[in-house]
Model the fold of this input.
Amino acid sequence: MPLYVPSFVCADAAPGATTWHTLASPQALAATPAGQRCGLTALTAATYTPAGIPVLAGACARPGTAGIFTASNGSWQASGPAIPAALVGQPITVARLTRAGPGISALLTAGSGPGTSLLAAWSADGSHWTVSPPLALHGATVTSASFGPGGTTAIITTGRHGQSIAPGGTAWLPLPALPSGTAALAPGSGGTTDALAVHGGTLTVWQHALGGATWTTIQVINVPIPYGSSS
Done:
């Protein structure tokens, strides 16, 4: 599963609305002073701050620049976090941007190929950020990323490896070997993490407690799937 869409037009719609309102196109944002400084090459995500301010994200051609932009007085302002010094020479892409917990959360990639690293970032207003330490992927790719109610970020990489980090965390925490069939992780409260595993028509929810070494089954749901039907 790719982490980002190469390019799209960002739009929104109010609850109950019948039409969409265009926020920005990649070309329009790239032409702004903020987009030019970033060298914006694509839009990858969009969200709103808790105060209702639109926030867009993208990929930057300028090394060491995180392409996050907030709307302000009719224009877009660069508001991305500062990148750790060790990664300032790397291309940065904002792969995820979403409301989570008391603010918004982002997932950024730095570098390319086997040297790619992953960063999580958190902000209450879209402008002031806390950034995690980088997680070296060593050639692996991210197959799933999710955010919990407190802003905790959880990822699955190729090889069925899971990692998580909470806002302000000093290191990514590796999870025990994921249950077979795990498709996504769901960070919960109190440091718990749920693993959603699918086998045919059966969804099994496993849970891991912070500091634990195993997963415990907490729910099994059988979903009827009509096989062999035809029109």
